[in-house]
Predict the structure.
Amino acid sequence: SMFGILDQVVVLGQDKPFISALIVPNLDAIINKMTEVGMEFNKEGVVYAEENGMQVVVEVPPEIVAGDVVTFMVRDAIDRVNAQLEPYEQIKEFRILNKKFTEQNGMMTPSAKIKTKNVLAAYQDVYDDIYKK
């Protein structure tokens, strides 16, 4: 895709003073890259599942997505998305998640649509943190 680091994006805050997003980065690409360049990471914390007959990464240790490299890449991609949007549509804040939305974890429909309600319920604390008074 055009913004390869952004795998799944849930846009929130249509009724709030600004727009935010919960972002699942491309976990496969991150793990492949880290392995390729020989970066150390907790391999036990990487969870795989089968999707369309392929093994894909569905969860990584939280510290991986919290790291500077992933944060920078996501911010860069968001900046490029925002450049194409009206100011009021732009994503002002985002949080990077370490778990993919899947049908198995109840976050997606069989036709691969994200169940926003379920995501919000699961990440209520994150949402509250973004929009804290």
Remarks:
- The helical segments are 27-36, 62-66, 68-82, 116-122, 124-130.
